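Help needed: design a sequence for this.
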């Protein structure tokens, strides 16, 4: 099961890098903003061996332009700080240098990010009129822990990541303009 999930994540990452220009946004979402968010309960170990549990709030604001291009603002925050990056259409890396991608598959908006070790995928699924959406978030890894830089810049070994509170909504207009 873990091996199959790993292969799925690798295939998705390659497909996302090869398809950004091909993945057309549905016309019903042109000039609309998709707001997605969730929290992740993280159990992590610092390089000095100190273990701690952290809750990370994740927010993504994705604007679908009047020509179908995807602009994204990604924010993650904890009690100790906040990181934000802005990704232009077709971006393949975020501000932290992690591989990332965002594209449509029919009525689904799919986003992925590859950590130093492990990955995350989110899928926003839209109803037939593109007036509402639901969100599913998945983390995957090969054996052992995930590895990712924390908001504080420290590289952590992450023993578990459990998403909760997934939400998705749609608004008219450009939040960045």
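Sure. Designed sequence:
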């Amino acid at each position: 099961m873990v091996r199959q999930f790993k292969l799925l994540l690798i295939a998705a990452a390659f497909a996302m890098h090869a398809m950004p220009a091909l993945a057309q946004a549905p016309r019903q979402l042109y000039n609309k903003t998709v707001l997605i968010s969730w929290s992740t309960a993280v159990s992590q170990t610092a390089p000095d061996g100190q273990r701690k549990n952290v809750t990370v709030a994740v927010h993504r604001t994705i604007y679908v332009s009047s020509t179908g291009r995807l602009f994204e603002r990604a924010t993650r925050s904890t009690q100790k700080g906040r990181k934000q990056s802005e990704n232009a259409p077709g971006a393949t890396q975020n501000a932290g240098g992690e591989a990332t991608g965002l594209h449509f598959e029919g009525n689904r908006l799919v986003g992925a990010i590859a950590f130093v070790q492990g990955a995350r995928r989110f899928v926003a699924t839209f109803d037939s009129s593109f007036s509402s959406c639901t969100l599913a978030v998945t983390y995957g890894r090969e054996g052992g822990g995930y590895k990712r830089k924390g908001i504080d810049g420290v590289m952590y070994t992450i023993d578990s990541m459990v998403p909760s509170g997934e939400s998705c909504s749609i608004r008219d207009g450009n939040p960045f303009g």
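The chain has one domain: 2-172.
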